[in-house]
């Protein structure tokens, strides 16, 4: 007989801490944690599956973090699909004996008890910056983004106290920031980074894909195709035992994306996989993070959706 499991919905920090204490009391020593901002898709579900496989208990958070948004960014426009998200979790994992145990859905006041202003100059209270790996790449156009990520992840880890925490490789810079955060603040949580989940045509799964028409989803597959073109060039030179010029890899990637005149390349960058220092040469054995951000037309709109993707060279 299949045992149906319905996750607890926790709304307060106190409730999560009580839940975590009960996990210890019930001799469930390992807790996996998947933090999300909702609008769940197959990529999130793959993180949850990994947590269920490797932990005694699993908790998810759904929280649209305001400190990641600048004043000019429309926080209110971010998709909030809580009922749909909870139903997806129930439908996907509810029939499992070891299903999702809890979903943390806090109000902003629970996470930011001193309040939160989107204007950094007006903010008060404690915030976390991981210097050296938040200023480049995504940090150029969104300078407060990773400060907000580091702050909320620190808070959530302090609340949940997970054994393992799970992220997707698609958000590569975020993963580097969090790995350094956990290392430097001596946090006893293991950061697990899972491969990017992709649609059949190679497009990285993202909540932002819902803004695209079917045609644009097909055309946007060229982003991953371009990255793979750069990877193939790197592998061909690497076989000769030589360092590979980053500029030559970029020369292989850029024209593939630029072949679609409706696409606007924000950046293509090659960086050290741990420090995010920009590289002149890619050294086999050290490798590199090759990442890009591309703006593509939204469906029935004059605006563009901003898609990010990356690959790791080894």
From TrEMBL:
<dbReference type="InterPro" id="IPR014729">
    <property type="entry name" value="Rossmann-like_a/b/a_fold"/>
</dbReference>
<dbReference type="InterPro" id="IPR003721">
    <property type="entry name" value="Pantoate_ligase"/>
</dbReference>
<dbReference type="GO" id="GO:0015940">
    <property type="term" value="P:pantothenate biosynthetic process"/>
</dbReference>
<keyword id="KW-0547">Nucleotide-binding</keyword>
<dbReference type="Pfam" id="PF02569">
    <property type="entry name" value="Pantoate_ligase"/>
</dbReference>
<dbReference type="InterPro" id="IPR004821">
    <property type="entry name" value="Cyt_trans-like"/>
</dbReference>
<dbReference type="GO" id="GO:0004592">
    <property type="term" value="F:pantoate-beta-alanine ligase activity"/>
</dbReference>
<keyword id="KW-0566">Pantothenate biosynthesis</keyword>
<dbReference type="InterPro" id="IPR042176">
    <property type="entry name" value="Pantoate_ligase_C"/>
</dbReference>
<keyword id="KW-0436">Ligase</keyword>
<keyword id="KW-0067">ATP-binding</keyword>
<dbReference type="GO" id="GO:0005524">
    <property type="term" value="F:ATP binding"/>
</dbReference>
<comment type="pathway">
    <text>Cofactor biosynthesis; (R)-pantothenate biosynthesis; (R)-pantothenate from (R)-pantoate and beta-alanine: step 1/1.</text>
</comment>
<comment type="similarity">
    <text>Belongs to the pantothenate synthetase family.</text>
</comment>
<protein>
    <recommendedName>
        <fullName>Pantoate--beta-alanine ligase</fullName>
        <ecNumber>6.3.2.1</ecNumber>
    </recommendedName>
</protein>
